[in-house]
Inverse folding.
């Protein structure tokens, strides 16, 4: 597994943990995993990924602008799934 795929897989796990934190009523844990996800995002070489992934990586900051925690959790889970699929693609 190359470095980008590993970073994308780690990013997906951090976002999944973030979503679980919000679903379980633990916003502090969720915020911590979001900070970790942003660090993982910076590890991804954005020039080496497909354009749709580049857009997703840039748009990652927008998911915390929502007021509804349920919506934030759903968005984090969606991003997580998309990044996980990209990491597993050949």
């Amino acid at each position: 597994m190359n470095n980008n795929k590993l970073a994308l897989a780690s990013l997906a796990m951090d976002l999944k943990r973030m979503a679980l934190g919000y679903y379980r009523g633990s916003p502090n844990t969720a915020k911590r995993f979001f900070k970790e996800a942003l660090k993982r995002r910076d590890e991804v070489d954005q020039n080496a990924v497909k354009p749709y992934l580049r857009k997703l990586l840039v748009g990652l900051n927008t998911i915390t602008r929502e007021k509804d925690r349920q919506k934030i959790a759903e968005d984090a889970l969606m991003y997580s799934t998309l990044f996980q699929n990209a990491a597993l693609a050949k």
